[in-house]
Amino acid sequence: MTIQVDKPLLDPYDYDFHEDPYPYYRRLRDEAPLYRNEELGFWALSRHADVHQGFRNSTTLSNRFGVSLDPASRGPHASKTMSFLAMDDPGHLRLRTLVSKGFTPRRIRELEPRVTEIATKHLDTMIEKATDGTVDYVDEFAGKLPMDVISELMGVPDPDRAQVRAWADGVMHRDDGVTDVPPEAIEASLNLIVYYQEMVAERREKPTDDLTTALLEAEIDGDRLTDEEILGFMFLMVIAGNETTTKLLANAAFWGHRNPDQLTAVYEDPAQVPLWVEETLRYDTSSQILARTVAGELTLYDTTIPDGDVLLLLPGSGHRDERVFDSPDDFVIGREIGSKLLSFGSGAHFCLGAHLARMEARVALTELFTRIKGYQVDEANSVRVHSSNVRGFAHLPMTLEVS
């Protein structure tokens, strides 16, 4: 696509940008590696090295006002819905350490059989519906699995999961031309918070074997999580663990469809699925834009950014930086990525749910490929989600060739 001359190089709310941000990113990297948008009041870093360093600079680049550009999501109370992701040390370290007492690698490993069962249930339904023609991969699978897995972790009863999933979807809704959180998303957020408040109260009275109970019981030298802190982490799981994994699954399917030669090895050997996941995370990552707040002064590219200004880090751009990746605009499953991946951040705020996201995607796509011989995406009727920081599909209709 081409960029209109009268358009800013970066407007996270622009629908054209949502459709294809990568030409904008290229111009940013080449022409304005430190970019300023006066109208929306932010700076942005687009080159891989700068984004990586930005993630690791938790002293001058603060998380305390949140990581979203949306005004309603920013401010001194951002941690109420974004937990430790919207904190600096020492508060960040304390809360993350306590949460880690319940959200353990062992708990994630033990969850895998249930993830397989949930994935199988949704896949079987999707495939049955696909016998009549086109099926929406997001509606029937990618949009259901991640939130159901989070509900499984937290202990949400089966009858409530569809409603909880609907509220979670509503939290991320954005309106065209509106540079803030719309009323529908605020209402969905309040509904979720009330539901989780009631669930925490129930677990306090009657503990069970789930993450909610584990968070209530987490303790270090007498220090425990408050109910408000538990609610903040549960809400963070909805935002950071649900939406991004849904988009990862749909992005993987879309780019696999666009690059069928790259999927040949995956069809032949499902053990290659993790490589497909990693290249999707690089090529079209779910989390495209993360905000930081300058604490003190920061000088980059001979420019001093004042204290309190918003600086956006663009991992989606960094992953297409030809300074780091060969032929970065080519989708190549199996390419060397390793520690160059920016999708889960780096440093003190490295994503606590990275292992869960990778496990979910591996299980989901492996189970899918044991059931199908091929698929075709109906691109003309695919619909992208509109968000200021997350990239993916709201609808991805496809036809399936069943094994």
Protein model, in words:
The structure is a single chain. The two termini are 37 Å apart. The relative contact order is 0.17. The protein has a single domain, classed as Orthogonal Bundle (Cytochrome p450), CATH 1.10.630. Strands 1-2-10-7-3 form a 5-stranded mixed β-sheet, covered by helices on one side. It contains 16 helices and 14 strands. A hairpin with an 8-residue loop joins strand 12 and strand 13 (393-395). With 403 residues, it is α+β, with helices and mostly antiparallel strands.
CATH architecture grouping? Orthogonal Bundle
Q: Low-confidence parts, pLDDT < 50 over ≥5 residues?
A: none
User: On the 0-100 scale, what is the average pLDDT?
Assistant: 92
Q: What is the N-to-C succession of helices and strands?
A: HHEEHEHHHEHHHHHEEHHHEEEEHHEEEE
What structural class results from the helix and strand content? alpha+beta
The radius of gyration over CA amounts to 21 Å
Number of helices: 16
CATH fold topology: Cytochrome p450
How many discrete structural domains? 1
